[in-house]
Amino acid sequence: MYTGVQFSVLGPVRLHRQGVEAGAGQPRQCAVLASLLLRAGRPVSLSKLVADVWGDEAPPSAIGSVRTYIYRLRQALGEQSDSSVHLVDGGYRLHIQPDALDLNRFKQTAARAREVRSAGDVASAASLLTEGLKMWRGVALAGVPGPFADQQRSVLGEMRLACAEEQLACEVERGRYAEAAAELSALLVEHPLRERVCSLLMTALYGAGRQSEALTIYHTISHLLRQRLGVSPSPELQQVHERILSGRFELPRNADRPMSVTRTPSPHVPAQLPAALPSLVGREREQEQVERLVADAEQSSSVAICTIGGLAGVGKTTFATTVAHRLTDRFPDGQLFADLQGAGPEVEPRDPAHVLEDFLQSLGVRTEDMPETAQARGLMFRGLLANRRMLVVLDNAWNTDQVKHLLPGGAGSMALVTSRMQLHALVAAYQALPLTLMPLSPADARSLLARRLGAARTAAEPEAVDRIIRLTGQLPLALANVAARAAYRPQLRLASLAEEYEAPEHRTLDAFASEEDQTLDVRASITRSYRLLDTETAALFRDLSACPNPLFAASQVADLAKRPESRVREVLSRLIRAHLVSEVGPGRYSWNRLVAEYAAEQAGGGIPDQSELAGR
Question: What is the CATH number of domain 1-165?
Answer without folding.
Answer: 1.10.10.10
